[in-house]
Fold this sequence. Notes:
Layout: H1 3-12, E1 16-20, H2 26-31, E2 39-42, H3 46-51, H4 53-57, E3 63-64, H5 72-83, E4 87-90, E5 94-96, E6 101-105, H6 109-115, E7 120-126, E8 130-131, H7 134-152, H8 158-162, E9 188-192, E10 201-206
Parallel strand pairs: 1-10, 2-3, 2-4, 4-7, 5-8, 7-10
Antiparallel strand pairs: 5-6, 6-9
Amino acid sequence: MDIKKTMENLDKNGIKPYFVETKEEVVPLIKTLINKGESVSNGGSMSLNETGVSELLKCGDYDFIDRTGLEGEEIRQAYIRAFGCDTYFCSSNAVTENGELYNVDGNSNRVACIVYGPRQVIMVVGVNKIVKDINEAITRVKEKAAPPNTKRLSCKTPCEATGSCISLKQDNPLICDGCQSPQRICCNYVVSAKQRHKDRIKVIIVNENLGY
Length: 212
């Protein structure tokens, strides 16, 4: 894992990198990147919970678009509002040393906001999510990200039961290979490479293991 190379390549790709040693440094940094009163929202993320970002968004200083507990048309409207917010917070399933972001979603409101919509996207990423290249990123999701997330979300999938994607039993599993479960969380696959809107996406790398 080469953090310096990762940050240099993120910057070359138009993605603004930041580095902090500890998770306690994340919230103070974020406070310098957003203004009070701005609209904010977030994707489901253990990294945001572990660093205190989730609590920051709920503190009352920001117009927090919260989809917690919503269903049907209400949650759809929350997703639409989040798509146009000032700042969207999430993590990344993997960050390559080549400066690419790899994300896989089921519902896909998160990857939609990463690609376009919010004025800026701030990702909080532990060093455990840095990988050499996209191939390693694909494997990481199938081995280390999807299985624990299906358990967290109580999804009835093979990886929830076995701890690994069934596609890994194949000789050469492809990027989209997976199960046929109705609750499959690996539905849309997004690689964020060179960005036209420079520094719209910001990645805070934390020198600790965070999330899945």
